[in-house]
Amino acid sequence: DAGVIQSPRHEVTEMGQEVTLRCKPISGHNSLFWYRQTMMRGLELLIYFNNNVPIDDSGMPEDRFSAKMPNASFSTLKIQPSEPRDSAVYFCASSPRGGAGYTFGSGTRLTVV
Amino acid sequence: RKEVEQDPGPFNVPEGATVAFNCTYSNSASQSFFWYRQDCRKEPKLLMSVYSSGNEDGRFTAQLNRASQYISLLIRDSKLSDSATYLCVVNFGWRDDKIIFGKGTRLHILP
Question: How far apart (Å, rounded) are the C-alpha atoms in residues A14 and B51?
Answer without folding.
Answer: 46
